[in-house]
UniProtKB/TrEMBL annotation:
This protein's record includes keyword Signal: no
Matches recorded under InterPro entries: MAU2, TPR-like_helical_dom_sf, TPR_rpt
Alphabetized UniProt keyword annotations: Cell cycle, Cell division, Chromosome partition, Mitosis, Nucleus
SMART domains: TPR
Name of this protein: MAU2 chromatid cohesion factor homolog
Subcellular location per the Swiss-Prot or TrEMBL entry: Nucleus, Nucleoplasm
Length: 618
């Protein structure tokens, strides 16, 4: 009986302890949920009350909560401080604690890997890349049983290597990711990894590896049956790579079927509604880009195509649409990719302005690119060479040849991109030809971009341009038969790929050669289509040149009325170019032509007036 009474007393005591523990857990849960609710209320207030949100989360720790709550609260604090304040030191401390504690807790993957992901982001922001890499590698190593996080962390480490220009390591990681996605049955994410790898291989110019990889991607994309938006976004990614590959190769005509498919694809996506149903495979929980970003990207590649083909009014139309869309997006989204899109669009439209005779507008847009680059050191690092190249082109358009040479030389020093290097060298050679007294430097450059043998890049467009520069040099040297051979090669290549500007420039130069040789009929056969094509582009410099030749041709042939009409056209073009020239050189931004070192200057001093020669315009 005593033993039974003792057992009953023991059982009652145990029940009391259990009840006390349950009450304590319930109380703990209630205070925790209350503090969490207040924190979220303050975070989502309009405007957010971040200080109060942080106070509520910090109030969790004095209660000495269980490890799970402690780790999660450190993660929440680190995330709020990282995203909403400049207190990176405290954010780092909380995220490091969240990562450390969560590794000791079984089945706590979301907190553990989110802490690792966010902490490595913060390390990169603080330029502590050497701390971010081992952290991500460890997280990747221990996340193999969690498909979503394993794939996400692989993407993140590959992106980190890409930002460091270590494309070989990035490609290796993307290959690992593609194989892992295949093993866990996610063909969708496998395609994302492979397309990302294809993009990097294109950047590295490893074309032998790109072609079979893109063929495989095409098969995977077509065979995958899943969420329609995800499928179409894969097709957009695939087609963007194909289009940019063609454009890099200067194949403006060959790209048209792919570009048309891409434009149709983005129209299809814009009609689809976002499906709220989550994929059954957690490895499929990725999106390449939001629909709105994809739309801007398609506008962008369309502008690139129009610029290369010489459809400058079309390029202007799509640039306006894209920039308007970007302005709306940037009000709600601070994603760095939007600034990159904006800079690339401006780079292309600046070149259009210089061709169409709007130098003042081009200069103001160059200044706009400078301002965007001032806000982001990484953006400036990626676009510094292009910026100096644009300034070099502007200098050529206002006849500041010494400044043009300095800008192109600076750009050459800053780039390791082969196509950009060839473009700069081609333009620098034309500067030396116009200066007329730089023979040694010119011969050295021409040898490096010899289109007859060992041309340094595979671009059809740049090789055609190199033939044109050779023809221009031979013309200035009075070697007319040699010039005609080079220019006919340019014409053959530019006609094959619809390179309208090169066609117009070659025709007018051939017309000039025939005029000098006294073959007026043949000259007219060249100059008239050059003028028509230049008007269609429109290319003001070629129109000015063609109208001057038509005036002189008609005079020589005794066609007084036609000569008068051509003279009037020439006068009109001269006046437009002269007025634009004076306006551009009077802008304070004109002082940018002297900038050749360091980050873009912040302020510009106004000038008294233009200090450039107008002789070649008249």
């Amino acid at each position: 009986m005593a033993a039974q009474a003792a057992a009953a007393a023991q059982a009652a005591a145990a029940a009391q302890v259990a009840a006390a523990q349950a009450a304590q857990a319930e109380a703990a849960e209630s205070w925790y949920l209350a503090l969490l609710g207040f924190a979220e209320h303050f975070r989502t207030s309009s405007p957010p009350k971040i200080r109060l949100c942080v106070h509520c989360l910090q109030a969790v720790f004095p209660f000495k909560p269980p490890q799970r709550i402690e780790a999660r609260t450190h993660l929440q604090l680190g995330s709020v401080l990282y995203h909403h304040t400049k207190n990176s030191e405290q954010a780092r401390s909380h995220l490091e604690k969240a990562w450390l504690i969560s590794q000791q807790i079984p089945q706590f993957e979301d907190v553990k890997f989110e802490a690792a992901s966010l902490l490595s982001e913060l390390y990169c922001q603080e330029n502590s890349v050497d701390a971010a890499k081992p952290l991500l590698r460890k997280a990747i190593q221990i996340s193999q049983q969690t498909p979503y996080w394993h794939c996400r962390l692989l993407f993140q480490l590959a992106q980190l290597h890409t930002l460091e220009k270590d494309l070989v390591s990035a490609c290796d990681l993307l290959g690992v990711g593609a194989e892992y996605a295949r093993v866990v049955g996610s063909e969708y994410t496998r395609a994302l990894f492979l397309l990302s790898k294809g993009m990097l291989l294109l950047m590295e110019r490893k074309l032998q590896e790109v072609h079979p990889l893109l063929t495989l991607c095409g098969q995977i994309v077509e065979n995958w049956q899943g969420n329609p938006i995800q499928k179409e976004s894969l097709r957009v990614f695939f087609l963007v790579l194909q289009v940019t590959h063609y454009l890099d190769a200067g194949q403006v005509k060959s790209v048209k079927p792919c570009l048309k498919q891409l434009q149709q694809c983005i129209q299809t996506i814009s009609t689809l509604h976002d499906d709220e149903i989550l994929p059954s495979n957690p490895a499929d929980l990725f999106h390449w880009l939001p629909k709105e970003h994809m739309c801007v990207l398609v506008y962008l590649v369309t502008v690139m195509h129009s610029m290369q083909a010489g459809y400058l009014e079309k390029a202007q139309k799509y640039t306006d649409k894209a920039l308007m869309q970007l302005e709306k997006l940037k009000m709600l989204d601070c994603s760095p990719i939007l600034s990159s899109f904006q800079v690339i669009l401006l780079e292309h439209i600046i070149m259009c302005r210089l061709v169409t005779g709007h130098k003042a507008t081009a200069l103001q847009e160059i200044s706009q690119v400078c301002q965007l680059c001032q806000q982001s050191p990484r953006l400036f690092s990626n676009h510094a060479a292009q910026l100096h190249t644009l300034l070099g082109l502007y200098c050529v358009s206002v006849n500041c040849m010494d400044n043009a040479e300095a800008q192109f030389t600076t750009a050459l020093r800053l780039t390791n991109h082969q196509e950009l290097w060839a473009f700069i060298v081609t333009n620098l050679a034309s500067v030396y030809i116009r200066e007329g007294n730089r023979h040694q430097e010119l011969y050295s450059l021409l040898e490096r971009i010899n289109p007859d043998h060992s041309f340094p890049v595979s671009s059809h467009c740049l090789r055609a341009a190199a033939f044109y520069v050779r023809g221009l040099f031979s013309f200035f040297q009075g070697r007319y038969n040699e010039a005609k051979r080079f220019l006919r090669e340019t014409l053959k290549m530019s006609n094959a790929e619809d390179l309208n500007r090169l066609t117009a420039c070659s025709l007018v130069l051939l017309g000039h050669i025939f005029y000098v040789l006294g073959n007026h009929r043949e000259s007219n056969n060249m100059v008239v289509p050059a003028m028509q094509l230049a008007s269609k582009i429109p290319d003001m410099s070629v129109q000015l040149w063609s109208s001057a030749l038509l005036r002189d041709l008609n005079k020589a042939c005794g066609n007084a009325m036609d000569a008068h009409e051509a003279a009037q056209m020439h006068q009109n073009f001269s006046q437009q170019l002269l007025q634009d020239h004076i306006e551009a050189c009077s802008l304070p931004e004109h002082n940018l032509i002297t900038w050749t070192d360091g980050p873009p200057p912040v302020q510009f001093q106004a000038q008294n007036g233009p200090n450039t020669s107008l002789a070649s315009l008249l």
